[in-house]
Amino acid sequence: MKLYIIKYTIASCLILFAFTAFGQGLQLATMSDVGQVNLTNPAKMPNKRFYIGAAPYVGGGTSINGAQIFETTGGFVPGFIDLNELEDENFVALNASVPFGFGFKVNKWAFNAHYASVYNTQIGFNKDFLGFLTQGNSPYVGETLNLDPNFNISLYQELGIGVSRQFLKIFNVGVRGKFLFGVLNANTVQGDLSLTTSDDFYQLNAAADYQIQLGGFPQIASLQNFESIDSAFQAQFSDPFSTFTQNRGFAFDIGATMDLGEFLHVGVSILDIGNINWQQNSYQYDLSGEFTFDGIDATGFLTGDDIDNITDTLNIDNIVNVSSNPTTYNAGVNTKTYITARLKLGKTFFINGVMRNEFTPNGIRTGLGVGAQKYFGKILGVGAMYSIQNGSFANLGANFSLKLGPAQIFVISDNILPVIDQWQAANTNIRVGANVTLNDKD
């Protein structure tokens, strides 16, 4: 049985904890020399007449500090996890996007367009779930654990077209429309999962009542038929453009910037206001059941007489009842807000501030950053930013941009501390971009 979507999610979590990355993308909002700055605010006009290029991004993160899960030596010690320091509700996330776009300015107008593949994973879990996952059920004998994990996984294509306009030489407004084409989606509508360990003979009693929506997948008749998920992933990844005629949606971005005097530039934006309507190959699944496991008869197990009975007992389709119905549902694409400020000190030195919020099914993710930027002529720019994200204060980012003739490359990360000690970090990300540009006449 190929539980491809489960393997895919677990792999995402492993990548997350291995590289401890979270997608806030704070510093891109302050880099005026990079054309992709308009991805954070459609009103922002980069100081280029024309740019074309790509800027892939990958990031992820968790509300759990790495020090609570790993020893300082980096070894994984499940029994050592500090559950007392955990919040009741926690999350892990993985985000990735591969945008390719261009933009140009004509007098007081600026235009931009981009195409991107976007992947988002949000997994929520409580303290009981993490305790059971890392320590097993031995600490909970005689207790009932309410595990209740939830998830929201989405993969879609995005085509955006934007325009901005300058007024009175100090005020810019911009808007961008985005056509969305859903590839795959999986989310929890509601979920109840409990596990009780008897204090008499340690019998296990599990009860489940889950509602899950899947979009872009073929219908699954039973949990044993999960190999269809494997073929669905392979088909979609081999021809992602086929989804342009299927699950569709629309979103838009709005933004404004203003120059307050000669030295202060401020901006505000709201991104991804919209959703995707999943209507083709979309189903809602109701999973329910109760199962008691009394253990295994050692004699029958050793002789092989009861192996068939054990196999039948543990067959997942004998444990969980599954019913499915075609459905149509809307799933959001996580609305985001940016507030930025850029203070000019001298000709080539800037102080930057940014606040970013992302509204997810598991709550609001907030990042606050303060940094500095220094340019050396029109060739080199370097910067750094300190940020607070998801309750973590250990975030020190850096950015670098280099322009040689019309070619420009840049690298951005909101937290480089994992390079020094990856097990102590909870958040970081990386964006690497390359552009071909034409500078302003002046």
Q: Give helix and strand order, one letter per element, not per position.
A: HEEEEHEEEEHEEEHHHEEEEEEEEHE
Question: How much helicity do the residues have?
Answer: 10-25%
The average pLDDT is 78
- DSSP helical segment count: 7
* Sheet of most strands: 20 strands, antiparallel
CATH topology: Porin
Q: Nearest-angstrom radius of gyration?
A: 25 Å
Intertermini distance: 64 Å
Per DSSP E runs of 2 or more residues, the count of β-strands stands at: 20
- State the name of the first-level CATH class: Mainly Beta
Strand content: over 45%
Structural class: mainly beta
- By CATH, the architecture is named Beta Barrel
Q: Characterize the overall form.
A: globular
The total number of structural domains is 1
**Unreliably modeled segments:** 1-24, 70-79, 296-303
